[in-house]
Amino acid sequence: MTKPLKPDTKLVPVPSTNIIPERDVDKSPILECRHLGIDFGGLTAVNKFDMAIGRTEIAGLIGPNGAGKTTVFNLLTKVYQPTRGTTLLDGKDTAGMNTVQVNHAGIARTFQNIRLFKDLSVLDNVLIGLHKEMEYNMVESILRLPHFWKTEKVAKERAMELLSIFDMQDLAHHQSGSLPYGAQRRLEIVRALGTNPSVLLLDEPAAGMNPSETGELMENIVKIRDTFQIAIMLIEHDMNLVMGICEGICVLNFGQIIAKGTADDIQNNPEVIAAYLGTKKEG
Question: Terminal CA-to-CA distance of the chain, rounded, Å?
Fold first, then answer.
């Protein structure tokens, strides 16, 4: 038998292109994407999407309309299954998971278009988000046994606690569809928090908000991160919001990352300026 040749190639460590906040560097990223991509027919919508999010990071995903930002969110939440690449959630490969499973694993999201149960009360919308914590069986529910009432009581208390983050506890029994647009946006975030996520994805959370509401939203996003010690990733076109609270920012153009860095890095990146932020006029 021929003795196999011993490879003489030396393996060397390859530095990662991912960045996370310094305070999270002693812990593995909560979310990591490796060469993530998806094709629709002959069209490549997202390609070679590589990024990591620290466990308490507020990250931004920006880019022109049609750049593939919401498609990335859909890949992370398994609305779409990727054509290639890997997504690790707390070190675990999410391959094969569906939307429910990935939510139970720790990813929650809001949508561009508000998706509340508008005929239900504000409180009931939040209770739907808390369904994982409401563990009782059908018999207990039908017969209204003590465990059922105890579970319902604890869930309602938790829902009111979450609503208080946005000072919405007094609106608990209002019909959610009757709320102003900005309040509906906030309610959707509260409902997402009810699933107890480790990563919260916000798709254009400031859409339709006035400057005052946007400023309050910025404060509340930071408050959510600090209170729950979770990672938050947002898609947003309001650059004041993005540059004001996002620590790491990823810029997409035509489905590919063209830049990653801090707010200062992104604002001064010529490729980003040309593709998205607008070329500065001379004079």
Answer: 77
Question: Same domain for 32 and 62?
Answer: yes
Q: Assess whether 32 and 93 both reside in one domain.
A: yes
Instruction: Specify the 3-state DSSP secondary structure of 33.
Output: strand
Residues 144 and 262 in one domain: no
Find tokens 């038998």 and name the residue: 1
- Per DSSP, which regions of 116-238 are E strands? 199-203, 231-235
* Helices and strands (DSSP H and E) totals, the chain: 10, 10
Query: Position of tokens 């490729």?
Result: 271
Determine contact, residues 181/51, Cβ cutoff 8 Å. no
Count: domains in the chain:
2
Contact 162, 154 (CB under 8 A): no
Residue 7 lies in a domain: no
**CA 43 to each of CA 83, 85, 124: distance values in angstroms, whole numbers, following the listed order:** 12, 17, 41
CA dihedral 120, 118, 110, 77 (to 10 degrees): 80
3-state secondary structure of 134: coil
pTM of the model: 0.85
Do 226 and 256 have their domain in common? yes
Q: Do 23 and 248 form a contact (C-beta atoms < 8 A)?
A: no
10 Å Cβ neighbour count for 100? Answer: 9
pLDDT in tens, 39-90: 998 899 999 999 999 999 999 999 998 899 999 999 999 999 999 999 999 9
